[in-house]
Design goal:
alpha/beta, Immunoglobulin-like, Rossmann fold, 3 domains, five-stranded mixed sheet, 7 helices, 21% helix, globular
Length: 462
């Protein structure tokens, strides 16, 4: 009787756990609820890029994260860059670039932390004719019958402090993560013909930080765009303190550069730069992926911001080398003293995404250049920046291990990942571990402005 009763108690306890556990988990779960999960784009004539927006709400009690998506190559998906708090709404923008006429049915599989089962978004329509301009954007967020072609987008680039126009500034225009326009302002003003649609704008000028206007819907009624750029602080070089003994002064002799005992020493540290006292010299080799997969606004543009911000704080005891790889690997900026900032900025400004990926050749070249410019008792570091499309060969692993554990020349490898597909960046984490460095993931301007600089500070801390 007692044995039977004990077995029943165990059975009841198991059933209690199975029933109660899901309830407990559900109380602290996020939940994805789309307002509309299927958009029909009707019949479209002269189609270029089709844009639709799927709005959703987190009806759960925990933060909702969109982890990744799966879709055809003709579809581009823009996800929220941050988690969606409970009861807040978010949106997923879908760009479809048709390559043929006729009916289409596209599916976007969306994985979240809310469920093991993905959500499915559907996009369908009938293409009657294709546009000769692939960047022409039809928005189905607004009335597609009101499309107006080729209105002019106008604006001004100004100095944030003085409010004066910046001549020679540049404005870049992105649509569906692709660069579709670029213009240089002769006197600070610009005017460029654009098709109606959603764009991301980036304005820059030599000696200034970059300004952005993301997800700006442009049509004939769009007001002038004003970009305010902050000027980078110029490096101040402090003159050495010169002591002259008036009693023994000889006009035919040069004054000696020695500090008098009663005069405090002038600090070498300069505003806007890393402290000479706190940080060792840096020998940094950038290995930058410029293959076509880096075209998105969340990739190469963010990378440029990150590098420029870091370089702005380097000193005359630091060296910079920039190597790019796409179809082949090449040295864009040979080992250069970080004092030559404008030359380095110009090199970074020329970066454009194209071609296939030749990462292995780039890695070999990066280690060669890092060894050639090696600085004793310093931070000797390679920073590999890519969207994750990197094939790591066995010989690459051997090279990484050799320098990561080197006795005469120790070189660390830090990897920086860009893009929304985090699953494709797993190789970068493994590489950074092999290279005795760190893995950094950058998916926002905020991270771009600090992540790489913090990595350099961490590695060069005395």
């Amino acid at each position: 009787m007692n044995a039977c009763f004990s077995k029943m108690r165990i059975l009841v306890l198991i059933l209690f756990v199975l029933v109660i556990k899901p309830v407990f988990t559900q109380e602290n779960a996020s939940h994805l609820n789309f307002e509309v999960s299927h958009t029909s784009l009707w019949k479209v004539s002269n189609a270029g890029t089709l844009l639709s927006k799927f709005t959703f709400k987190n009806t759960g009690n925990a933060v909702l994260y969109i982890l990744r998506t799966e879709h055809e190559r003709s579809v581009t998906v823009i996800l929220p860059q941050h988690g969606i708090e409970a009861n807040d709404t978010g949106s997923i923008r879908v760009y479809y670039s048709p390559d043929r006429k006729g009916k289409f049915n596209e599916k976007i599989i969306v994985y979240t932390n809310a469920s093991d089962k993905p959500a499915v978004l559907k996009l369908s329509g009938d293409i009657k004719s294709l546009s000769s301009s692939p960047q022409e954007c039809y928005s189905f967020i607004l009335d597609n019958e009101a499309q107006i072609r080729n209105p002019r987008c106008e604006g001004t680039v100004i100095n944030k402090e003085t409010k004066l126009p910046i001549a020679g500034s540049k404005v870049y225009i992105y649509s569906s993560n692709q660069l579709v326009g670029k213009t240089t302002t002769p006197n600070g003003d610009f005017s460029i013909a654009l098709n109606i649609g959603l764009y991301d704008f980036m304005a820059t000028a030599e000696g200034y930080d970059t300004a952005y206007k993301d997800e700006t819907y442009f049509n004939k009624n769009t007001p002038r765009l004003i970009f305010e750029l902050s000027q980078r602080k110029a490096k101040t070089i402090l003159p050495p303190t010169v002591a002259i003994d008036s009693k023994k002064h000889d006009t035919t002799k040069t004054a000696t550069k020695t500090e008098p005992k009663d005069t405090p020493l002038v600090s070498r540290n300069q505003p806007g730069l890393l402290s000479y006292d706190e940080y060792k010299p840096n020998n940094i080799v950038f290995l930058i992926d410029i293959s076509s997969s880096m075209q998105g606004k969340d990739r190469l543009p963010l990378l440029k911001i990150s590098i420029n911000k870091m370089i702005s704080q380097l000193r005359d005891i630091d060296n910079i080398t920039i190597i790019t790889y796409a179809d082949r690997a090449k040295v864009l900026v040979p080992s250069t003293n970080a004092n030559m900032k404008e030359e380095i900025y110009k090199g970074i400004d020329t970066l454009k995404a194209y071609g296939t990926t030749a990462g292995s050749k780039g890695l070999d070249l990066a280690y060669q250049m890092a060894a050639q410019s090696y600085i004793i008792d310093a931070n000797n570091q390679i920073i590999l920046a890519t969207d994750g499309a990197f094939t790591l060969k066995r010989k690459d692993q051997k090279v990484i291990r050799k320098f990561a554990k080197g006795k005469s020349k120790k070189i660390t490898l830090t990897t920086v990942g860009f893009g929304s597909e985090k699953t494709s960046l797993k190789t970068l984490e493994e590489m950074s571990q092999e290279g005795n460095g760190n893995y950094i993931y950058i998916n926002s301007i905020e991270l771009a402005e600090r992540a790489m600089l913090e990595e350099i500070k961490h590695n060069s801390k005395r």
